[in-house]
Design goal:
The complex is a heterodimer. Chain A contains two helices and five strands. Chain A is an alpha+beta fold. In chain A, a hairpin with a 2-residue loop joins strand 2 and strand 3. The radius of gyration of chain A is 12 Å and the shape is globular. A five-stranded antiparallel beta sheet of chain A has the order 3-2-1-4-5. Helices cover 40% and strands 16% of the residues of chain B. Chain B has 15 helices and 13 strands. Chain B has a five-stranded parallel beta sheet. In chain B, strand 8, helix 11 and strand 9 form a beta-alpha-beta unit. The longest helix of chain B has 28 residues. Chain B is globular, with a radius of gyration of 22 Å. The relative contact order of chain B is 0.15. Chains A and B meet through strand 5, helix 1 and helix 2 of A and helix 2, helix 6, helix 7, helix 9 and helix 12 of B.
Chain lengths: 95, 383
């Protein structure tokens, strides 16, 4: 339930400041970054929960978090979740 | 400890486990509650019980959202799906949670339009795409998840949507911890505090546990090493005779939490005077209702819900297991009438539920041991 998935920001959308395009294990989806106050940049890593960025994390921590999901047998579930995010896909060019 | 071998820090894990064994006082016992269902899952998955000394008892806490949701609320949510022209959406965890008349999955098979989503924003999108339908999101979760629901409601308001509602079952962990501490049959020595919840709440809300109840709280991560370190920090606090809130998960959890998320929660939700928790009963100020000014998005205002309280089947002892008074396998239904294929209680549904975790990792191992013992004894008696 409290699955937290690490992803890397690949793109921002000028017209939708609350959304960032994020890469999770090769799958790219939009994630809402409205819960983060800090300045975000392309290549930053974030922890994602139900379509929202919960916190900004380091690359090392993102890697560790991914390892943990694998160790918990939840990496497939995490990928399924990210693939399942479909909000705002229609307004963004598919990369 | 077969799963830990797959993990990245077997040496470190061994060191911390040894340090715990060397530190504990063999003359006393340590009852430590891991509050979060994610911790429960990790403890079972990685066989951490096997590396801890016998006088450390881990008590599984109430931090599993679907597990603490009372059946009456499941019925209320499913009643929304029976309204014509309605799409009910929920997370995958909810799909197999039994209400009085079946699970969301079973109701869907009977023709109700119930859809699984991975984000409340996906439910919002469904509302935009289906202007002639009412779309409701069955929201569950602790402080980790509630801010996402809050932002989704604010987004629906900004979009001026009139066909989108939220059935809020969001709960807050701190009042539940207080209820457990006040329960006469609970004797706990310390808490492994929730990791991702604290990402939002920070560590301050737990300070009363250290100050008023004199119990250590160590907010911990979910890796085996994190949990063992958390336990070691609790043991050390107990020996030093000092109680405080410590943050083992500093790399993720800021002490002050996530201020933007806390603001979103305050903007959208108010505390309910009381809310029923499965197994724990009614707990005051423990759940989040949508503010009256956002009533247009509140399913409890927009739909007439049965609101009938449903008691658990008498034989199921979910409450005792949730409070840690009984171990999962001590429930009369465990592994028999209640199993992951046909769960009677919600603790058997979610992978974070103590019963499902125990069934999946511990009970199987015990069964195999038992069978081996039987074979040995049959061999010895020549039978």
């Amino acid at each position: 339930m409290c699955l937290a998935i690490p992803g890397q920001i690949v793109e921002f959308h000028a017209d939708q400041p609350l959304l960032a395009r994020v890469d999770v294990g090769g799958v790219r989806r939009n994630v809402n970054v409205g819960l983060l106050e800090e300045q975000l940049e392309v290549n930053d890593w974030i922890l994602i929960h139900v379509g929202f960025a919960l916190s900004k994390i380091s690359e090392r921590e993102a890697h560790d978090q991914l390892q943990m999901l694998k160790a918990m047998g939840e990496d497939e579930l995490a990928m399924e979740e990210v693939r399942g995010y479909t909000f705002a896909e229609e307004s963004v060019a598919v990369t | 400890m077969k799963y830990v071998d797959e993990f990245r820090d077997p040496v470190l894990i061994g060191n911390v486990a040894r340090e715990i064994r060397n530190t504990v006082d063999p003359a006393r016992t340590y009852r430590i509650m891991e509050v979060c269902g994610g911790h429960t899952h990790s403890i079972y998955r990685h066989g951490l019980r096997d590396v801890l000394p016998a006088n450390i008892e881990l008590v599984h806490g109430p931090g599993c959202p679907v597990c603490v949701l009372p059946t009456g609320r499941v019925d209320d949510g499913l009643s929304i799906a029976r309204h014509p022209g309605t799409i009910l959406t929920c997370f995958g965890d909810m799909m197999r949670v039994p209400g009085t008349q079946g699970t969301p999955l079973e109701l869907k098979a009977q023709g109700a339009d119930i859809r699984m989503v991975y984000s409340p924003l996906d439910a919002l999108r469904l509302a935009q795409e289906n202007p002639d339908k009412n779309v409701c999101f069955f929201a569950i979760g602790f402080e980790t998840t509630a801010p996402s629901t809050a932002l989704t409601i604010l987004r629906a308001q900004a979009l001026g949507l009139r066909n989108f509602t939220i059935f809020s079952n969001h709960v807050t962990i701190v009042p539940a911890m207080r209820a457990i501490l006040d329960s006469p049959d609970m004797r706990l020595d310390g808490f492994v505090g929730p990791g991702h919840v604290a990402t939002i709440t920070g560590c301050r809300p737990y300070e009363f546990i250290a100050a008023e109840y004199r119990k250590p709280v160590v907010v911990s991560g979910f890796e085996p090493l994190d949990i063992l370190e958390g336990i070691l920090m609790i043991v050390r606090q107990l020996h030093a005779g000092e109680t405080k809130v410590e943050n083992q998960y500093r790399r993720i959890v800021p002490f002050e939490g996530n201020p933007a998320a806390l603001r979103a929660l305050a903007q959208v939700f108010v505390l309910r005077p009381f809310f029923e928790w499965r197994g724990l009963g009614f707990i005051s100020q423990s759940a989040l209702a949508i503010r009256p000014e956002l009533a247009a998005f509140d399913a409890e205002v927009q739909f007439e819900l049965p609101g009938v309280r449903v008691t658990d089947p008498k034989a199921a002892q979910c409450g005792e297991v949730l409070k840690g008074v009984l171990k999962p396998a001590q429930c009369k239904l465990f592994g028999k009438e209640c199993n992951p294929e046909r769960p009677v209680g919600a603790l058997m549904v979610s992978s974070e539920g103590a019963c499902a975790a125990h069934y999946r990792y511990a009970a199987r191992a015990q069964e195999q041991e038992h069978e081996q013992e039987l074979e040995v004894s049959r061999g010895a008696s020549g039978a």
